[in-house]
Amino acid sequence: MATLYFSYSTVHGLDAAEPLNSPYSITWNLGRFLRTKAVERGYAFEYRQLDDCTPVTIGKDDIVIGHSWYPEGFLTNAFKQECKARFLIQPYQHDIVGKNESWWIKQLAEKADHLFFVTGSYWWDTMSDGLYGDWKDKATRLDMAINPALHPHSKVTWNKPGKRRVLAIGADIPYKGLDMIADFARCGGFHLGYFGSAPYERFAHVPQFKHYGGADFTPELQRHLTEEYDFFISLAYGDANPTTLLETACWGLLPMCNKESGYWGGEPFVELRKDDMAFNLDQLLLLQVAPEYKLNELTAHIRRQIVEQHTWPRFNETVWAEVEKWL
Questions:
Q1: Using CB atoms within 10 A as the burial measure, which of 127, 232, 278, 285 is most buried?
Q2: Is CATH 3.20.20.30 correct for 149-309?
Q3: Which CATH number, 3.30.470, 2.60.40, 3.40.50, 1.10.150, labels domain 3-144+312-326?
Q4: pTM confidence score
C-alpha cells in the first residue's frame, strides 16, 4: 500500500483532543485533514516529526509533504528518494534562504515537485523581486488560518483618546523588527506592552513599557489584554504571514503593520511603513483621537475578513486540490 507522509513540526499532536495553537496549528489541522483524505483514497498515512532521523524507505508510489526547518531530519532524507510527489510547505518571504544558516531550504525547494507558501499577498505579489522568483511557477500561496473559537472577540471598551495603548508579540528574532517597534514607542510616547523572548533591556529607552515574557494566550488572558490595550503592532523586516495579526484582530484589537509583515497597506490592517516614522506617527495620531464608533466599525470590518478568509477548511482544501492531481 502506498503511503502519504506528513512532517511539519517537532511535536505530534494530531490526536490531541483540542486544536493546537500557533505555531503548531498547521500540524494539528492539516495533519488530521491529510490523514482522513489519505485513508479515503486508499493510502496509508504516517506523521513524522521534523527532527526524526530514523532511516526511512520511501516507495515510488508514496507522497511526501513537509516543512523544511530541520536540516538533517525526516524531510531531507525523504526528498533524497524517488517517489510519486514531493511537496514543501512553509512560510515564505524574500530572504527565506539565509547566507549561512538555511542553505538546505533551497535544496529542498528545488527537489520539490510543488511548493506551498504560507505567505501574505505582499510577498507573493513581489516574489519576482527576490532571489527565488522562479519558484512561483510551481507554487501555491496559502493564507495562514486560525480557529476563531480559540480567539473570541472580547474588546468592549477603548482607552481614552491620547491614552490608547499598543501591544506587541514576537520572538527575539531580528526579522521581527522589535528594534523598530521600540523606537516607534519612544517617538510616539505611547504605552507599549510586549510578550516574547526579548529581554527587558531591549526596550529600556521606551518611557512607558510593560514586559510580560512568554504566555499561553488563553481566552481569559485575551480578555484581560483587550481591557488594557487597544492596538496591536507588527513592524517587521521580513515576516511571512504573522499569525499574531490574525489572532489579535479576532480579539478586537486594531492591528497595524508594514508591508514587510506580509500585507499591503489597508489589506486589511492599518498601514505602517518600515522607513517612514513620520507617516507612522501620523497614523497613530489618527487612531489616538478617533471616536470609539469608528474604531468599532474598523475592527469589526477587519475581524469579519479574517473569520471569512483565514479558515482551516480553505487552507486544507487548497493543499488537497494540488495533492490530488498527483495521486
A1: 232
A2: no
A3: 3.40.50
A4: 0.94
